Amino acid sequence: MIDETESSRQPTKSAGSAVRLWAGIGGSVVALAAVGVLDYATGSRVSVLFFYLIPVWLATQFLGRAAGIAVSFLAAGVWTVLALVGPDPVRIVIWNGGMRLALFMAFSLLADGLIRRRHELARLRSHIRWM
After folding, report:
1. What are the pLDDT digits (tens) for 114-128?
2. Tally of domains in the chain
């Protein structure tokens, strides 16, 4: 009985995985590009730090921890490149870029932990219902 249920869900699961994959990749890339454009347009005097967390969260949510960390590096890289155009010395820009990378990575790890706990709670709730 269990095997039939799992095999009947297999096509849906793989189709759902493809949707999650493209939603994660596309959403992260589009969000990061939009934040980069916004950051460039606002200049160095206005911080858009919070908005950089959106593509990191999208990658973590739909693709997992490794993708979230990879997008953290990309987000920190975009911010650093844009900051090099500003008036700050290179050593300060590099330091600030490293600090942003650390923040983005910590956010990704925390988001991944929260997502995993939420999935585990849902699994336990469904298990309790059938008891």
Report:
1. 999 999 999 998 888
2. 1
